[in-house]
Design a protein that fits this description.
GO terms for molecular function: acyltransferase activity, transferring groups other than amino-acyl groups. Pfam families: Acetyltransf_1. The protein is of the alpha+beta class and 178 residues long. The chain is built from four helices and eight strands. The chain has an eight-stranded mixed sheet with strand order 1-2-3-4-5-6-8-7, sandwiched between helices. Strand 1 and strand 2 form a beta hairpin. It is globular and about 45 Å long.
Length: 178
């Protein structure tokens, strides 16, 4: 099994692989907050089954489920609270897969502007390289997630051909070599 980086320390938060029951529950809550914020039906992605089976397709040795938690207390972010997440899984359409997919990048509103999203992307890219992936892809929504699209661009993600069929108008497909 590939060794994962156990913790990444940042001012005010840390990022780690979610492994405990509590961490998986926190991830489930973050995923739910994310999809509530999106206000879209994700049933075409098998979202309910994904949520019920966590860590599921995101578990090692081919995936990662990362959680960011606060390491200092503030009025809006008590120490230990889950403030962000990101997931990584092999892309189904390639076997053996050298391409992975980033999923469910999310930070709670109180943590936005603290660098959590950037740190989560840094970490998920690092995990993907350690797992031997050569390319990472993701999907996002152009109008609803303009800030995320800009952030992905800063990490070298560029538009690519769609890698699955989606009923959601305005879906962007992005990718980059690792």
């Amino acid at each position: 099994m590939t060794d994962f980086i156990s913790n990444s320390e940042h001012p005010g938060f840390q990022i780690k692989q979610a492994t405990t029951f509590t961490e998986i529950t926190q991830i489930r809550d973050l995923f739910t907050a994310y999809t509530s914020w999106l206000d879209l039906d994700l049933s075409f992605q098998g979202y309910e089954a994904e949520l019920a089976s966590l860590p599921g397709v995101y578990k090692p040795p081919t995936g990662a489920l990362l959680i960011a938690t606060s390491t200092s207390s503030s009025s809006s972010l008590p120490e230990g609270s889950a403030i962000g997440c990101v997931a990584l899984r092999p892309l189904k359409s390639t076997s053996p897969s050298k391409t992975c997919e980033m999923k469910r990048l999310y930070t709670v509103s109180e943590a936005r502007g603290l660098g959590v999203g950037k740190a989560l992307i840094d970490r998920v890219l690092e995990e993907a390289r350690k797992l031997g992936y050569e390319e990472m892809v993701l999907d996002t929504l152009d109008a609803k997630m303009e800030g995320a699209v800009r952030l992905y661009g800063k990490f070298g993600f560029q538009r690519i051909e769609a890698y699955y069929d989606t009923p959601l108008e305005g879906t962007l497909f992005l990718g980059r070599k690792l």
